[in-house]
Amino acid sequence: MNLENLTQHIKTKPDLDFGTIFSRSIELFKKVWLQGFIILLLTFVLMLPFYIVLYIPMIALGITDPDSLQHNELPPMAAIAMTILMPVFIIGVTTFALALNAAFLKICREKDLGKESSDDYFFFFKEGRLGKVFILALYTFGLSIAGAMACGVGMFYVIVPVSLIPAFLAFSNHLSPLEMVKASFTLGNKNWLVIFGLILVSAFVAQLGFILCCVGVLFTAMLGKVPVYYMYKDGVGFNEVEEISSY
Description:
By secondary structure, this protein is mainly alpha-helical. The chain is built from 11 helices and no strands. Helix 4 (76-112) packs across helix 5 (129-149). The model is unreliable at 240-247 (pLDDT under 50).
């Protein structure tokens, strides 16, 4: 299904239902909470090298001139270097986060269908798929910058289509990165209020893990990602033949 047909298909689908998606997400999360926890740990581990890269200027400065770090202000050269490295950090983290989130949604699909299969957390790191994920990360970064430049108000708008990108990466991988972004906007614009509400409520519920001595949030954080699977399932639907052939 090309982008034009997919766009028309999305427009003909019924509007998303907040209550239905939220209740099903809670039930599905009971089946994937462990996989969500593993995805979260993998995200933290893969982020570490980018944190090291970001702080290389300060590390180098601490080695060559330890006295310069004793002041409250960051030396100009270190500040400039960290500013230059910041986009690298953000895009790198976003790339790995997108790949892992898409893999998590594929796992949600398997559990929803009741299939017993091995959980492939690194599906999008293999067979050249990471290149497409990297391009999507660039689009995501650009959209975030554009949203922030719109007096911050734009961030509330773009958060909806951006949240849908991992689902199109997971289930519509035959599309190009730009087409995935366009399809995300099509689905997001049609159901913006419902999706935004689901994002807020599910994120709030996911943070309730803080009640358990803060450690519980590690097990509940990925609850906020589960509704995206049902947004795609109800708003786009699955074509099993196309889904399999696209890989």
